[in-house]
Amino acid sequence: MRVTVIGATGQLGTDVCREFRNSGYEVDALAHSEIHIESADSVTQTLAASRPDVVVNTAAFHHVDVCEQDPATAFAINTIGPRNLAKSCSEIGAILFHISTDYVFDGAKCLPYVESDLALPLNVYGNSKLAGENFVRTLAPRHYILRTSGLYGTSPCRGKNGRNFVQLMLTLAREKGAVKVVRDEQVTPTFTEDLARQIVSLVPSEAYGLYHASAEGSCSWYDFAAEIFRITDTKVELKAANSSDFPAKTPRPRYSVLENQALKARGLNQMRHWLVGLDSYLSGATVTRSA
Which fold has domain 2-149+192-214+257-271? Predict the structure, then answer.
């Protein structure tokens, strides 16, 4: 089978390409410069030429504050882009994987969100991603929508100046010796390699639909940082903070934990606990540790 990965040089896209290749698939790895998903012509021409069996869309405009300032671009990439891909995939009979986000929820539930929970985004980014989901649902009969949370991986994250949360914590510890991290926001840190394996495992299932696909378990950002420092034996003064100590330009959900209910109900869940994923990442990643 032939797979086209969009956003192939990004943090998640790099791992998706590798996992598909390791599983024997032929992969077309498209960087952001090679396809412009906000352009219907670009999408149609690119996919018509390669005729993939599977398309994986990892591309997104996901800097939350920038999305708030530039909603037109956010909706062009996060909403119109998936619409264009869904229409094209439907025309050529391809399976479409679309990666979405925990930010479609407002965080008010304070319990893990399942797929049937009402999505109520707090910001432009979440709204643009939810609208993209809706286009995929209605236009691409053979689709997988995967909502995930707190991604980090070994490849640079384009939307965060090339550094993920783990790298940021280790850098701050080395440079400052003390780090202050919020303790009142709950997330599920998800290793991109685990999500990539989950994506590949779904292809033969033909169990199309909406799924939550994040690591098992949850923690605060403070707890996440504490585990990073513990595993790497990093000497640092870790201080707890409240989200009010870091006034945000854009509202964000304070609780965005996802429960992989649909994957589990179908016996398809491959996601590991976040602690296992973090240990795996730190064992294989090139990270800078403080003295």
Answer: Rossmann fold (3.40.50)
